[in-house]
Amino acid sequence: MEQNIQEVLLTEEQIKNRIAELGRILTEEYRDKNPVVIGVLKGVVLFYADMVREIKTSCQMEFMRISSYEGTDSTGKIIIRQDVSSDIQGRHVLILEDIFDTGNTLSFVYQHLLEKKPASVKICTLLDKPSRRKPGVTLQADYVGFTIPNYFVVGYGLDYNEYYRNLPYIGILKPEAYT
Ligand code: 5GP
Ligand code: MG
Questions:
Q1: At what angle do helices 45-52 and 12-30 cross, to 10 degrees?
Q2: CA–CA distance, 89 with 142 (Å, rounded to integer)
Q3: What is the CB < 6 Å shell around ligand 1?
């Protein structure tokens, strides 16, 4: 597995420190708001587990599962495999996502959740690749862990064909590992 990593982009420690910083901001933002923290599976799993532990105020946890991405290429087609299981009308919603790439997924999820009439919806993404944004996507993340260049990254929840999610850091995959 690790022999296919060209370079470590973000170490475990960098990730941990940044999540602690975001946690302080989100704790203030959501104090007494009893937010519903919605994770977009599966890529968000490790970020989600670490992030919610740094949000030191009461919250509820929900998940959505979306399919949109095959291999290293966004198909742009989005299917909801699993929707949130509780009523979020009137609630403060915080979406957690692994990576904001073309914006297809988050734009879709954001619109979908807005239709449920929450009190507010904000987005916190661990990684942002603004250079990949599809023209016409105006949505922005409210909280960003790291802004990164246009590399295909794996680890810390992010996969290539369902592998590498369990790496504790974020790495750049060797191009030869795609083939
Ligand atoms: P978008 O819909 O913004 O194009 O893509 C979002 C989804 O594509 C992410 O949730 C993630 O699953 C996948 N994705 C985008 N860029 C990368 C990347 O660099 N590495 C991996 N492993 N997945 C990515
Ligand atoms: Mg994802």
A1: 50
A2: 21
A3: 43, 68-69, 74, 97-106, 152-154, 158-160
Which ligand 1 atom sits nearest the alpha carbon of residue 108?
2
pLDDT in tens, 111-155: 999 999 999 999 999 999 999 999 999 999 999 999 999 999 999
Between strands 36-41 and 60-70, the pairing is: parallel
Which letter does DSSP use for residue 33 in this model?
T
What are phi and psi for residue 117, nearest 5 degrees?
A: 60, 50
CA 148 to chain CA mean position, Å: 14
Integer Cα distance of 104 and 68 in angstroms: 8
Sign of the CA dihedral with 77 first, then 82, 88, and 93 last: negative
Q: What angle do CA 162, 166, 169 make, to 5 degrees?
A: 115
**Residue 96: CB atoms within 10 Å:** 22
pLDDT per position as a tens digit, 87-103 = 999 999 999 999 999 99
d(CA 148, CA 132): 10
Which atom of ligand 1 is nearest the CA belonging to 152?
19
